[in-house]
Each structure stands twice: as C-alpha cells, then as structure tokens.
Amino acid sequence: MGSVVGWYSHGVDLTDERSTFSRMVSGLFGSVDDSVEAMVTPPLALAVQRPAPRAGDEPTGRLASISTTTGVVTVGMSGEIYNRTELAATLRRRGHPVKADNDAELLLYSYLEWADGMPDHLDGVFAVVVWDERCRRLTLVRDRLGVEPLYYGRLRDGVVFGSDPADLFANGSVPRQVDIESMRDMFTFTTSRSTSPWKGLTQVEPGGIVTVTSDRIRSHIYWRLTARPHSDGWEDTVTYVRGRLNSILRQQLSDVAPCALLSGGLDSSAMTGLAARQLEGEKPVHTYSVEHANTGTETADAPFARAVARLVGSEHHQLAYTCSDLSDPDLRRRVIMARGGPVGWGDADASLYLAFNHIGQTFGTALSGDGSDALFGFHPSLEQRAFAARVIPWQEAKLVEFWSEPLHPQLRKALDLPTAMTDQYQQAVAEIEHLPDADNVERRMREMCYLDLGWHMRTVLERRDRIARATGLNVRVPFCDHNLVEYMYNVPWSLKTFDGREKSVLRHAALDVIPPSVAQRRKSGYPFMEDPGYTSALQDQAEEILAQPDSPVFDIVDPAWVEWAVDAEIPRDSLSLRFGLDKVLDLHHWLDLYEPELLLD
C-alpha cells in the first residue's frame, strides 16, 4: 500500500521550496506510523510512504535511483508488485543486477529495460512515479484497474501529484474549489475514471500513463478491456478460475500473516476457503466479520461466516458495534477525512473504519473479496435489470435520490443528476467492443460487466482503499487480478449462469472449500445498522446544526428539509430519511474540515 506525494517544476528550484514540500509531506504521513523516503532536487520533490511492517509483513523499498551516463533516473511508488520473483528473474537474464525484495528497484530496472512498456510486465496494484533526468520527463503510471489512487494538478510551471487530493492543497498553488461539475461526483454513486471531486485536480486513469515535460502534459491508456471469443466450456472455465485464484492467493499470501475479511457470502467464503487450503498444515487463517451489537438479532451474514470458519478451521473474530459507536460524530469526521469527502455511506463506512482499525492493530495485511460481483455476475435479477436500466449499475438504486433530496431545489436543478448519469452511461457504453456474432443478451450483459468493472467497482475499491490507508491496514483484492478480469470479462453470460444461478463459475470453482449453505446462499449486501436508534441519533445531530443558521452547509442544503427530517417519525423503512441525514451531516463536517471554496452559481 503506502502513499506518494510530489511536485515537479520546470520554473522553480525546488531545493529552495523545502518548507512548502515539508507541508505536503506532513499532510500525507502525519496520521500513520510510517517510514518515509524522500528526495528534493531542483526540478523534482518526491516522498513515498512505506507502512511499518507487522505480523510477518516484509518491508519493501518505495524509492530508488540510478545514475546513468546521461542522467539520473528515479522511481517512487505506492502499492505492491506481486510477480516480484518472476520479474526479477527476467531482468537478471537481461543483465540487470536487481533484487526481488525491493519493489522500487524492480520498477527502476523495468523502466530502464522497457521504458513506457514497463507496466505491461507488472502484476500488482501500483501508482508509479518516474523522473527521467535524461529526457527531463516525469511519468505517472497507474495499475490497470485503478486500485491505487493517483491524482495530479496542473501548475503554471509544472504539476503536483499524489495519492490523496488533500495533500496537494498543502502546496498552496492548488485552490480547494468545488464547482457544479466536480460536485456531481459526490452524488452519482460512481467514481469517475479521470475527474475528481475537486476543481482542477485530475486522476490518472486506471491503466493509464501521464507524461509531463516543460512544454506539455500527455496521457494515454496502456490497458483496456477488449472483447475476445471464449472457447472454453464450463468445466474448463471453472478449472481455469480455480487455478488462477490459487496462483493469485499463493502470491498474495507469500509474505504476510494470513488474515481475511469474511462476510459469509460466496465471494469472501470462496477466497477464504481457497486461502486456507493453500496454507493447510502451515498456519491458520484469521478471519473477521462485522456484527451489530444490542439489536436483538444478528446480521444475516453471521451464521454463514461462522460455518465457513468451522469448515476451514480459521480463528474467527466477530467485531460487534453498537448504534452509539456508529453514530459518533468524531468517528464521522475521521471517516470523512479518510474518504476525502462527504460520501454519505453512514454506518457502513463507520463500521468498516472501526473494523479495519481493529484488524490493523494485529495484522498489516488482510484479504478482501471486493471485485467478485462485477466479474462473476452478482445477482439473479441482473439480466432483467440490465434491459430496464440505461444508467451505470447501482445508479438505478434509490441512493442518488436519497442523497440529493436535502439539497436546495436550485442546486439540485443545476446539478441535473439524471442528465449527468445518462451522459456518463452513454460515454461509457460507446467505449465497449462487441463480438460480431453476439446476440442481444450477450451484448447487453457485456455492457453491464464493463460498466460494473470500469465504474461501480472503482467506487467500491476507492472506499476500501481510502479507509484502509487511513487506518494503516493493507487490504489485498485477489479478484482484481488483471488476468482473471480479462478472462472473466470474455466468459459469455450463458456460462456465468450455467447452473441457473448467479456466479455459477465461482461457486463451482470453490464447491469443495465452502459449506453447502454458502454455496446456495443468495447475494446479501454489506450490513447496515437496523436499529432505529441510529436514525434517531442522526436527527439529534441535525437538530444541533439547525441551531447554527450561519453554517455553510445551508449554502448547499435546504434548511426546510432538515427541519422536516428532524421532526419526522422514523418509519420501519427509514432509508430515505437516514441516507438524507447522513449526507447532510457529512456535508456539514466536510465543509468544516476542508473549508472548500464553493463555485456553485
């Protein structure tokens, strides 16, 4: 994991700007126990974070340089390279004196060998920065699926760049501004591939490279999903997926103490069962699930998670959080800082933050089943929904409506979220390649898979990454291996549902390592707090905001809606009320923490 922050200038000597750069570094590394590697040269200032190792995690370098006859080449990175051993062997055969235990050194020699072709040879999740003094060029590279974040902002004489937009503001040259376009990202329930919630900041696209010189900034895509015929039958498809997952887990468990997030759903259970099989006779897997305390009933996940733990012999830990825990305003502020904005996921983010923080006290790394939904076909009604919806998956859910209800009517009209989502959808669908002989169902289901992988899954991954980063936990995502993604993207829908159920391929690939009850279980979402006391606590906090009529939140939120919400009876199904209140409270604290300049006229 780790983080990166830097500054490139072709007009200012950055050795004279150490105090400014120190502010950027302090913002990045101030909240976690990290070791920091940094360098400052006239054109480039760069700092990288390496999280302190614990529970068997092996440290690996994040910054490396080499002097050539024509200049110095420097590489900094966040993330992890999983094919270290194979990559090091290839580079040694080509004459490079590389060690397999230093990721930055591997990337440095990979760049020297392949230049911009470097990422084609990498398996892993990464944000890479290369300064090549020989041609006076800065290169920013992001992994194929965008698991590792990487932002940049243009300056008059260069760029600032880093893992978190907040750290770029410390430079002083990037204003904290939010306009109508950037605010849309806060309400549309997707994470854009290149824009950000801040005006003037851009993301390096997943599978993208950005090059910066004194006279131009250029970007191109080195990896994208492409349509290819799938010739394997269902048995060979299942066999490939089982083998590929085993290979991925072997890589991702090789240097860490085994720990997994286990909900009891098919994804996390298959991952945990296969991981335990890999480690059979070596060391037990520790598994963690989230439970809500004092609600009178356990979550739907709990009995399934325990059944998996019994079957695989894991040391299972149930983390239980009360309504009071999850509605704590101080926790909300920590979550907003972690997420970097007013996301509005409420108790779901709060419980994940607490869980990651708890796990991180013992383990440096945990496995997560995120990404599986998009690959394997996540819901039995997906095919019917696909033909009805003309938006990116999950945008047809009510969340967008719930979140936007509290806004001033004129702001809601200016945001025009329905049109924005339609435009987003049409732009994405236009990118998709189809096989010439695909029928309407296969074409539509490929579109749904593409949209889920390229848009909604990025929202899920960003949530996981930012909360993990803030709590010091490294979370690995085996299902986001690009080889597996490329393969499953081209598996026809008829094969993904060959047994008449969702996720047929994954289920059959893991049948011998999961309980029958889990194999037959339907998809269940992340558990939300069902205690109406949670919504009641939000009402009390919103009432306190009403007592502050000068609060900047009322530049965005209609006070009449807040007055209604504070006095409303809490119905049995209070999702509209609670999600609206969660968004209002997030906006209130975000405005206080970040003090953005709102350009909403």
Describe the overall structure:
By secondary structure, the chain is an alpha+beta fold. The chain folds into three domains: 4-221, 4-Layer Sandwich (Glutamine Phosphoribosylpyrophosphate, subunit 1, domain 1), CATH 3.60.20.10; 234-519, 3-Layer(aba) Sandwich (Rossmann fold), CATH 3.40.50.620; 532-599, no CATH class. 42% of the residues lie in helices and 17% in strands. The chain has 24 helices and 19 strands. A hairpin with a 2-residue loop joins strand 8 (151-155) and strand 9. Mean pLDDT is 90; it is low at 54-59.
Helix content: 40-55%
* Span of the ends, CA to CA: 39 Å
**Morphology call:** globular
Largest sheet features: 6 strands, antiparallel
CATH architecture designation of the largest domain = 3-Layer(aba) Sandwich
Using only CA atoms, what is the Rg? Answer: 24 Å
Which band does the percent of strand residues land in?
15-25%
Quick rundown:
The protein is of the alpha+beta class and 601 residues long. The protein is built from 24 helices and 19 strands.
What characteristics describe this protein?
globular, Glutamine Phosphoribosylpyrophosphate, subunit 1, domain 1, 19 strands, Rossmann fold, 3 domains, six-stranded antiparallel sheet, alpha+beta, 42% helix, 601 residues
List the SSEs and their pairings:
Layout: E1 4-9, H1 18-29, E2 34-40, E3 44-51, E4 63-68, E5 71-81, H2 84-93, H3 103-114, E6 124-132, E7 137-142, E8 151-155, E9 158-162, H4 165-169, E10 177-179, H5 180-184, E11 201-203, E12 208-212, E13 217-221, H6 234-252, E14 259-261, H7 266-278, E15 286-292, H8 302-312, E16 315-321, H9 323-326, H10 329-339, H11 347-359, E17 365-367, H12 372-376, H13 382-388, H14 399-404, H15 409-415, H16 417-429, H17 440-471, E18 474-476, H18 482-489, H19 493-496, H20 504-509, H21 516-519, H22 532-546, H23 559-567, H24 575-594, E19 597-599
Parallel strand pairs: 10-19, 14-15, 15-16, 17-18
Antiparallel strand pairs: 1-3, 1-9, 2-3, 4-5, 5-6, 6-7, 7-12, 8-9, 8-11, 12-13
Helix pairs in contact: 2-3, 6-7, 7-8, 10-17, 10-24, 11-17, 22-23, 22-24
